[in-house]
Structures are given as C-alpha cells and as structure tokens.
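Sequence in, structure out. Go.
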Amino acid sequence: MWNRRGLLGAGMALMGAGMPVTWAQTAATPGKVIIAVDQKSSFCYLPLTIAERKGFFAEEGVDVTVRELPEPGEAMLAVQSGSAHVLSGPYTATIGQHIRAQPQTAFVLQARAPQMVLGVSLRAMAHYRELRDLRGRRIGVMALDSASDRIARLMLARAGMAAKNEVQFVRLATPTEALTAFHSGGIDAICYNDPTITQLEQSGALRVIADTRTLRGCTEVFGGPMPAGCLSAPSEFVAAQPKLCQALTNAVVHGLKWLQTAGPSDIIKAVPEHYFLGDRALYLAAFSRAREAWTPDGMMPATGPSTAADMLAKFDASGGVQRVDLARTYTNEFARRAKARFKA
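Output:
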C-alpha cells in the first residue's frame, strides 16, 4: 500500500468516498509517523536525513518513515489527503495553506535560506552586464512555481521585466537534466540548487547573479532571512499531538546541532551514497557552502515570516497573503524546548 501511488491513492480514496480525514485518527498508532517530502536529497532537508540516519528519531521513541514523492506538490497532497502526517517542505507552502483556508503549522525550521542560485552561462552570455540582458533568453528552473522559479521571477521583476512575456522558463526536474541543458546550450541561464550549482561554478561555466545560500545573499534578494525547509503539519494535528511534535522537533534540532560541527568524514558516513551523484568531493564542497543556511536551533527567525509573506505577495494578485495571520503559520514552542535541551 505504501508505495508512491498507494500513498497518495489511499488518502484520495478516503476523500473521494466522502470520509473526511481527522488528524488525530491518522496518528492513532502511537509513535509512528509518516513524513512526506518532495526532494529528500535537497540540502534544505539534510537535517531530516541526518535525524533519520543517525537514529535521532528512534532515540525520541518515534518510528518515522520518510516518503519521497516524485513530483513537486505531491508531498503536500499526501499530507492533505491523510496519507502522511507531516510535511518536510518550504515554509511558504504553510502560508499557502492558510490562504486556502486549510491551516498548517510549521513547528521546526531546518533552513533559513532557500539555497537557490541564479546564474548565467558564460558561453551563451559572455557579455552579460545586467538582468535586462536576460530578455528573450531561456532560464532553467526546477519546476514552475517552485522556489527556483519564484526567485528568478523576483529578480527579473526588479529589472522591470515581465517574466511570462520576456523570458522562457524551462523545467529541469533533475540535476542530470539541468547539467545537460546547461552544457548543451539548451538554456542560457539557470536558477537551481546545490550540488548542481557548485559543479557549474567549479567548471568555470557559470556566472552567479543572485545567491541565496548565505544569509547575506538572502538579505540582498529578499531583504532578510528566508525560512525554507521546515517540518509542518495541519494545525489540528499539531494541537492534538504535542508530544509527537516535540519528539520530531527534538530529533531535527539534534540533527541541526550535529551538522554544526560535522566534518567531511562524518558526512560521508551519514549521507546516503546516491546523494553524492557519483562525486563525493563535489558534494562536500557544496556542503561547506550550505552550513550557514541551516538554522542552528530550529527556531523561526523573528522577521522570517514577514520576509516570506512579502515575497509571496509579489506573485499573489488576489491579495490572499495579506489576509493571513502569520502568527498562526508557525510555532517556536517545540523548538524552544529542544534548543534548551540540546544547548543548540
């Protein structure tokens, strides 16, 4: 049942049969949790992998199954349908659920920077000088309406360019597709994450325009820290399962603390081999660039929610973002306890 199709199909069958999912019921088996994630190998969600691989969830008495879904948005669908309990996804998705009147609460933050980079091909755009030079060009993104797509559109808007009319976005769902398109000339620019970006940088093929792998870069692009990967769940679930949410938060904060001092040999032992994409040195180089992007303690930055909302508002013609009470989209209650326990 719990393969990818079954995971979604089971929950959708309940919805289609008119049987509403109650989050207290989906967590009825004590200590067992299903966490859905779209791109588990993303650096934004590395704390989740570390908590899983180092046994930190088990130490908290929680039996966690992490289910990776193949398409963007499917992880959220799994949580909405009741086929998964918790989402490991972007904080902006939590705001989006409040706009849809399906309140969701982020309860532990993994990353305070989305770790996306916008850059141009030095071969295709050797004479690049400013963002307006991208007019009429092809820009590779991970998926339409994804973080990479939004960051690219945000930067173009600053140059007075309407993304829909003046550039062509090309979806590149995997790092292999992205690298092939970039090197073959299929795209002129790219907005993507690591280790793909680090590989292009090391080859001397990419010129970076905007870099959200650091707090300084986030401030330049968004005006402040941008909360990215987090664990969130329907607000009803968080209210009904505080002990479970605390256990999950403890494990993630433990993972975050471990990452603060982890060396290359530690990472090689802890991270699944397929994350390296056949090049451990490249992954470790990208890892060293990502350290600052993870939050050290799982806490939501004070200005993070408003920064995320301001960014989303630029793409929301309905005005729904302005109607969201941001204080209801997250809680620091669990992270605060975990921070004190682990001295994070």
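Check: Confidence is low (pLDDT under 50) at residues 1-28. The CA atoms of residues 3 and 185 lie 37 Å apart.
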